[in-house]
Structure formats: structure tokens, C-alpha cells
Write a structure and sequence with these properties.
The chain is an alpha/beta fold. The chain has twelve helices and 14 strands.
Length: about 300
């Protein structure tokens, strides 16, 4: 049996970890957003894949949620002394992953193959896939024009007002074949949309041709988890972007964004007042994942919601 989880970075990775701990070994397939990917200092960097990978391997920075917890920073300190670009921080151990990924991609391997091998070497049991092996790049339109996503997210710290989001390359990209096969498989018991930013973490996945149709035709229930609690984002610019793009920054607003895709929706007890306006079957629970126990509990809640829908 298989549970397919669509994930962005930090918060999505937390639920992916919870799912990996409550599901039997080998039953979880995590499909990662690659719209955040970019080339920096000549290296191919996949932030969401790496966050999911480090989280599942148990080596993620417990305070930041991204990067490695056992990190050193000699490379960045030396680069800074030489006058190089340091706005996107790369730890020494993290740097090794980017160097090896870049070498193998330029040698002709796919991002899927490289990711699978890195996960195996880190002892990760769940399968981790990119949404596509073709490049898709998220861009945001601000008063200053179009900005590359990492420039907006990291260098500019999400300060510019966003008027539009686009996914360059998505229209000609091919969805990862194993991802589509899992959605079509009768062995798939649930599809989980993790509590990641709908605009910049989930919608790049949905923008790849064939993904929306495959989700619509999937026999397994699709259950989304709200990234908003009490009108605020669990992490990152989700609420800010929703307001700037004309959507109410609420659990109900996210549910309506996914309205044509989901069968079930999990939101926090704090958003009980949103339930009446949501068409999907709603399950209330604690969606803030502060501890490992919280991640496992939310995973059980999500899987329970999927079981009810299967009946």
C-alpha cells in the first residue's frame, strides 16, 4: 500500500516525518516541490528536497527546520572574507550535497536518480521524488517587476508585495513518472497535501501538466492539511501572500483554493468557525507540530480522515 504526500519545505517535511513514523516501512512516497530550485555559486540547489531529506534522515536543524543540525560554516566564512555572495547560506555538510548533486546532474543523471541515491546513503526508507525531472522555476511579480523566488524569499525576506506568481517551465515539464503511476495505482490508499504554502509549495506541483487530472482521477481520497491556524501561517509568508493576492488568510481560504481537488480537509481546532464554508469533509485536530509526538499525532489524524473517506 502507498500513501502519497505532496510537500514543500519545513512544515510539509514535519508532517512527512510524522507519516513515516506511523506508516509501515516503505508505504510513504513524498513528492517534493522543485519550483524553489535554483543555481547558486554554480551549484544546483533543491531546497525543499533537501529539507525533506534531512528531516526524514533525522539530521535537520531542529531550530530552523532547514539545513543540517550538525553543520559547520568554514566555507561561508571564507567566502565572506573573499567578498563573495553570502546571502544564501550554505553550510559545509550541506555544500557537499549540492556539489555531488551538481556533478551527477551535469553527468546526465536525473534529479530523481540523484535524490534516490542520496536518500539511500542517508538511510531514508520512504521514497522521495521531485515533482518533475525537468526544471520548473517559481517567480513572483512585485512593484519592481518579476523576481526569482529565492531572491524574494531569502535575499529580500519576503518583503516585496506579491501581485502574481508564475512557474516558468511548468507548461513543458513532465511529471515524475512514478508520481503519476502512484496516483493511478489501486494500491494507493491516500493522497496527503501537506500544510505547505499553497502558492509557492503546492501549486508548482499542480502546475505540471497531468498532475491535476491524475489527482481528479485518483481513486484514493485526497486530504489537505491547513497551513493556517487562527488566521496566521504556521511558518513563512503564506498569510501575507494570501492577503496580497486577494484571498482571505484563513483555513477556509486555503480549502477553497483546493476545492476542486480535495475530498477531505484537516484544520486546527482554532479554526472551528471556518468549517461551515468548506465543501470537503472537515476533520478538526491539533495542526501545530512543535514536537515529534505532535507530528505523529497529526499524521494519525490525517490518515484517519482518509480512512473515513474510503468507507
Amino acid at each position: 500500500m502507498t500513501v502519497v504526500a505532496l510537500s514543500g519545505g519545513v512544515v510539509g517535511a514535519k508532517l512527512a516525518l510524522g507519516l513515516s513514523r506511523v506508516l509501515p516501512a516503505g508505504e510513504l512516497l513524498v513528492v517534493c516541490n522543485t519550483g524553489d530550485d535554483f543555481e547558486h555559486l554554480g551549484l544546483c540547489i533543491s531546497p525543499d528536497i533537501d529539507t525533506v531529506m534531512y528531516t526524514l534522515a533525522g539530521v535537520a536543524n531542529p531550530e530552523l527546520g532547514w539545513g543540517r543540525g550538525d553543520e559547520t560554516w568554514s566555507f561561508m566564512e571564507t567566502l565572506d572574507a573573499l567578498g563573495g555572495e553570502t546571502w544564501f547560506r550554505l553550510g559545509d555538510r550541506d555544500l557537499a550535497v549540492h556539489v555531488e548533486r551538481t556533478r551527477r546532474l551535469r553527468a546526465g543523471e536525473t534529479l530523481s536518480a540523484v535524490t534516490a541515491d542520496l536518500c539511500a546513503r542517508l538511510g531514508i526508507v520512504p521514497r522521495v521524488l521531485p515533482m518533475s525531472d525537468d526544471p520548473v522555476r517559481t517567480r513572483v511579480r512585485t512593484e519592481e517587476g518579476w523576481i526569482e523566488f529565492q531572491d524574494y524569499f531569502v535575499r529580500r525576506r519576503c518583503e516585496p508585495v506579491v501581485h502574481e506568481v508564475a512557474f516558468h517551465g511548468a507548461a513543458t515539464a513532465c511529471a515524475q513518472p512514478d508520481f503519476l503511476a502512484a496516483l493511478a495505482s489501486p494500491r494507493t490508499t491516500a493522497v496527503v497535501i501537506c500544510p505547505s504554502n499553497p502558492f509557492i509549495s503546492i501549486e508548482p506541483i499542480l502546475a505540471v501538466p497531468g498532475v491535476r487530472a491524475a489527482l481528479a482521477e485518483c481513486a484514493a481520497p485526497v486530504v489537505a492539511v491547513s497551513p493556517i491556524i487562527g488566521g496566521r501561517a504556521v511558518k513563512g509568508p503564506t498569510a501575507k501572500m494570501m492577503a496580497e493576492l486577494g484571498m482571505p488568510p484563513s483555513a477556509g481560504g486555503v480549502a477553497r483554493r483546493y476545492d476542486d481537488l480535495i475530498d477531505g480537509y484537516v484544520c486546527d481546532f482554532a479554526d472551528m468557525d471556518q468549517v461551515a464554508g468548506i465543501d470537503a469533509k472537515v476533520t478538526l485536530g491539533q495542526t501545530m507540530m512543535t514536537t515529534l509526538a505532535d507530528r505523529e499525532a497529526l499524521a494519525r489524524t490525517v490518515l484517519g480522515a482518509a480512512r473515513v473517506l474510503r468507507r
